[in-house]
Amino acid sequence: MKGKTDKKLEQKNIKPTAMRQLVYEILEKQKKALSLYEIEQQFDNVERSTIFRTLKTFQDNYLIHSIDDGTGAVKYALCDDDCTCKPDDLHIHFLCNKCGQTHCMKDMPVPKMDLAEGFSFENANFVVKGICPNCR
Ligand SMILES: [Zn+2]
Ligand SMILES: [Zn+2]
Questions:
Q1: What total number of domains does the chain contain?
Q2: Residue 135 within any structural domain of the chain
Q3: From ligand 2's centre to the CA of 11, what distance in Å?
Q4: Residues linked to residue 92 through DSSP beta bridges, in sequence order
Q5: Could you say which ligand is closest to the alpha carbon of residue 65?
Q6: Within a domain: 24
Q7: Which residues bind Zn(2+) (predicted)?
């Protein structure tokens, strides 16, 4: 019998290891994006570099995406099952000015942009700032 976590990892061609299962489960139970530091806080005795490598593997396989929300710490959140982090998969993020938490607005795709000739679109970081429902 395989657990839900193993299935999610294998779906993205990631071999499930104990470390990967734990990091996935931490991200899965959060409703917000987490920084490397916040993930590290969930462990007693794990090297930051081990967590970082795990996150890198996840990101390379489109299991998670990273968000630069302007706070100085890159944050990570799970991707949808069919995400390949292409421009069409990108969505807007919301940073709460009060609690500092960053949320995925998965129903809000990044708007299409008509760039000047010769410029090609690869990625965008759209961060909306305001007050989240928990803080109002
Ligand atoms: Zn908030
Ligand atoms: Zn997101």
A1: 1
A2: no
A3: 19
A4: 105
A5: 2
A6: yes
A7: 96, 99, 132, 135
Residue ranges making up the domain that contains 86: 4-130
Q: From ligand 2's centre to the CA of 35, what distance in Å?
A: 13
Q: Has residue 56 been placed in a domain?
A: yes
CATH number of the domain to which 37 belongs: 1.10.10.10
Which ligand has the nearest atom to the CA of 131? 1
Helix (H) or strand (E) holding 109: strand 102-109
Q: What separation in Å is there between the alpha carbon of 132 and the centre of ligand 1?
A: 4
Q: Are 36 and 26 in contact (CB under 8 A)?
A: no
Strand partners of residue 66: 76
Task: Give distance in angstroms: CA of 126 to centre of ligand 2.
Answer: 10
Report the pLDDT value the prediction gives residue 1, as an integer from 0 to 100. Answer: 57
pLDDT of residue 59: 96
Ligand 2 centroid distance, CA of 77 (Å): 6
- Return the closest-CA partner of residue 40 out of 29, 31, 51: 51
Tens digit of pLDDT for each residue in 48-73?
Answer: 999 999 999 999 999 999 999 999 99
Q: Residue range 36-50: average pLDDT?
A: 94
Domain-located, residue 136:
no
CB 134 within 8 A of CB 97: no
